[in-house]
Amino acid sequence: MTHPPRRLVSAALLSAALLLSAGSAGAEVVLHRGNGGEPQTLDQAHTSIDVEANVLKDLYEGLTIYDAAGKIIPGAAESWTVSDDGTVYTFKIRDAAKWSNGEPVTAEDFVFSFRRVEDPKEAAGYANLLYPLKNAEAINTKGMAIDQLGAKAVDAKTLELTLERPTPYLLELLAHQSALPVNKASVEKNGADFVKPGTMISNGAFKLTENVANDHITAVKNENYWDAASVKLDKVIFYPLEDQAAAVRRFQAGELDVNYYFPTDQTDYLRQQLGDQVHMTPSLASYYYTFDTRTEPFNDVRVRKALAMAIDRDFLSEEVFQGGQLPLYSAVPPGIASYGEPEKVSYAETDQLDREDEAKRLLKEAGYGEGGKPLKIDIRYNTNANHEKVATAVADNWKALGATVTLTNLDVKSHYAYLQEGGAYGAARCGWTADYADAESFLGLNISTNKTFNYAHWKNEKYDALMAQSYAETDQAKRAALLHEAEKILLAEEPVTSLMIYASPWLVSSKVKGWQDNAVNDHLSKFLSKE
Q1: What is the rounded distance in angstroms from the CA atom of residue 187 to the CA atom of residue 199?
Q2: What's the pLDDT tens digit per position in 376-412?
Q3: DSSP assignment of 258-292, as one string?
Q4: Which of 246, 235, 258, 328 is nearest to 287 (CA)?
């Protein structure tokens, strides 16, 4: 057998290497994201949960956004100024900001979008988020003309927002998914169909190409995005994986690059297997149960208090979540600088056995328990291995009080839709992540006029009055004092009971670069790359 000269072999190898290199450079870079559940909607006016936000914030860009570290930075607006009294914000929208169809993003698009959220005909569940805008609440609840909203297009690229009062957290609020813009022309032409692949016109780093229910959502790089040159991914595919065990297996097999949620009772095991690919990040978020105060026995504060104090939060933290989440005895999680140390329930420092004795006493006083009326409770939760374990543990705590407990679970979309539409229940699992770093983001959930998130259907006139005063108070120390008084009432009445400070469980492949854990749990794909 003859052999080619050595230098020819070297040349051939070099040529092959160059071809392989060129092929790699030209390969499509796809990020596969496990997303923890099926979005109810991709309509900004009707969004309410984090699995929707994860998708929407890749497709659209608000005036402000959170960077990879969770810090507010300019988004579609390149800059802004604030009046001396803090009530007028003027935003300069980027000249290069375009929609995915190549048309410019204008101030009028934002005016249209904000008006749409506040229009009572739209029935946006998150309309209250924009209540700091002048006349927003009056438009949404009292029929004031929509053109009276404090949002004005000064010119094509200048947006002026006038507020009811100084709002320290406005820039954070504007990064929320419900404050994302919609394309005015597309919504007017297509109506509710504007969210469909092939129809949606978006202004974010990616654009929608597929939305297959309960299977996947695909977004490809938006070549008309103002910062497209810095976007390193060609495509992002979201998978609505509620089966956490299956999601972990897919991550371990390399089918997922990022996954939101995993069975936290496996945290130690997963860290042994996956090392620093396991992320458990404490956040401004609470894991809580709510009671339906419209019906017996949950309209009795003694029953609610008894059930709340009987829950063994230490067990949930240590055994179910292996320390990944911490017990919470306040309505507002700690860590909000403008609020200080939150209030706590009266039994926060009481031994668990003593709590159980007091719970039995309260139930007997209310006419339930041994010798009294039977206590029947149905716990509702969204399908998830961790939530099932929590519900089972809580059920055991309540059975120790003599209650008969059943469990009902639905997928995340149906679970929250049921609560938001006013379905009857006994107790229900909920979670809340702050929309902005302010105590109001938690306390505002339980105002009686909050028809979307006051799942307990609780009403307390003094609480409502204190919250109303806090919205009008410009002195930050006085405002914080009002919010503390409101929290005391909420904890005393206990229509909801906090269980834990919610940590955000993520699996992030070592191939993914640019990931940073952050308390706001915002992780835009535009900041990520993949080896």
Answers
A1: 10
A2: 999 999 999 899 999 999 999 999 999 999 999 999 9
A3: EEE---GGGHHHHHHHHGGGEEEEEEEEEEEEEE-
A4: 328
Cβ pair 368, 303 in contact under 8 A = yes
Written as six digits, the tokens of 274 are 């996956």
* Residue 296: inside a domain: yes
Q: Which residues contact 326 (CB under 8 A, 6 or more apart)?
A: 282, 317, 500, 501
Tokens of 144: 């004031």
Coil/strand/helix, residue 391: helix
Say yes or no: 63 and 203 in one domain. yes
Gyration radius of the chain's alpha carbons: 25
To which residue do tokens 């374990």 refer? 389
Q: Are residues 466 and 516 in the same domain?
A: no
Instruction: Kindly state whether residues 350 and 437 are assigned to the same domain.
Output: yes
> Is residue 402 in a domain?
yes
Question: pLDDT band at residue 234, thresholds of 50, 70 and 90?
Answer: very high
| Confidence (pTM) | 0.77
User: Contact 216/33 with Cβ under 8 angstroms?
Assistant: no
How many Å apart are CA 312 and CA 325, to the nearest integer?
Answer: 13
Distance of alpha carbon 39 from alpha carbon 219, whole angstroms: 15
Say if residue 374's pLDDT is above 80.
yes
Residue 111: CATH number of its domain: 3.90.76.10
Q: What is the pLDDT of residues 165-221, one digit of tens each?
A: 989 889 999 999 999 999 999 999 999 999 999 999 999 999 999 999 999 999 999
Claim to verify: residue 471 and residue 513 sit in the same structural domain: no
Pair 210, 299 in one domain: no
Q: Are 460 and 494 a contacting pair, CB within 8 Å?
A: no
CATH number of the CATH domain containing 425: 3.10.105.10
Judge residue 253's burial from the number of C-beta atoms within 10 Å of its C-beta, 0-12 exposed, 13-18 middle, 19 or more buried.
exposed
Are 376 and 523 within one domain? Answer: no
Pairwise CA distance, residues 65 & 81, whole Å: 17
- The CA-atom distances, in angstroms, between 36 and each of 217, 253, 403, 429 are 13, 18, 32, 16
Question: Identity (one letter) of the amino acid at 344?
Answer: K
The answer to whether position 269 is within a domain reads no
d(CA 32, CA 241): 12
> What is the β-pairing status of strands 376-382 and 235-239?
unpaired
CA 501 – CA 478 distance, rounded (Å): 26
pLDDT at 420: 95
Both tokens of 198, joined, read 């092939």
Domain of residue 152, residue span: 33-234+509-530
